[in-house]
Amino acid sequence: MSARDVVLVDAGGTNIGSVRYALERLGVDARISGDAGRIRRASHVILPGVGAAGPGMARLHKAGLVDLIRGLEQPVLGVCLGMQLLFDHSEEGDTACLGVIPGQVRRIESDPQHRVPHMGWNALRRVREDRLLDAIPGPAFVYFVHSYAVPEGESTVASVDYGSPLSAIVRHRNFCGMQFHPERSASVGALLLKNFLCP
To answer: Which of 91, 92, 183, 198 is catalytic?
Structure first.
């Protein structure tokens, strides 16, 4: 796996270091770059992100990376906010996003049993077969921290039940997303990252 040329998009995501260290544990020396040419040449691209949709998209616009990301043809993985930015629109700040996966990001509805933000370990529920889930045991628990989410839909590979079914892993063409933090999800997260990087 060390032969993979993996680039982490440097767009201000505060989890970029922890994602890079998680990849290092898999033997992958991922480069951090905001250079369009370098990102375009990568075999795999990861878009990390923590925070709000509006500032996240503003950073991508300022870096001149919006059209580049939209046009990528290699495997692309969005993590946490990075996943949300792959969709058409977010209710958070009424933000137009990258639009490479059809769908809307909505605020999680809170109730006495489901507080917002959704924070902690929850089990994935397999929705459809996908190589991202190869060898993933059941139940598989992963670590979430988020207040906005994508309802389960056509792109959903795995969901999480948090009052209603929310997308936890998505795929549309070459674009994938993980709403949780694989870099903080122990052996399950490591295997999910490994599956993304496998041919």
So the answer is: 183
Among residues 148, 153, 127, 126, the alpha carbon closest in space to that of 137 is found at 126
* Distance separating alpha carbons of residues 19 and 182, to the nearest angstrom: 8
In a domain, 113, yes or no: yes
**Tens of pLDDT along 134-154?**
999 889 999 999 999 999 999
pLDDT above 70: residue 13: no
Find the mean pLDDT for residues 19-46. 96
Measured in whole angstroms, the distance separating CA 132 from the mean position of its chain's CA atoms is 12
In a domain, 185, yes or no: yes
Domain with residue 192: its CATH number is 3.40.50.880
Q: Is 80 assigned a catalytic role?
A: yes
Cα separation, 163 vs 8, whole angstroms: 33
Residue 1: inside a domain: no
Domain range enclosing 192: 6-197
Whether 144 is covered by a domain: the verdict is: yes
Domain count, the chain: 1
Tokens 């059209």 correspond to: 67
Q: Is there a catalytic annotation at residue 183?
A: yes
Q: Is 198 a catalytic residue?
A: no
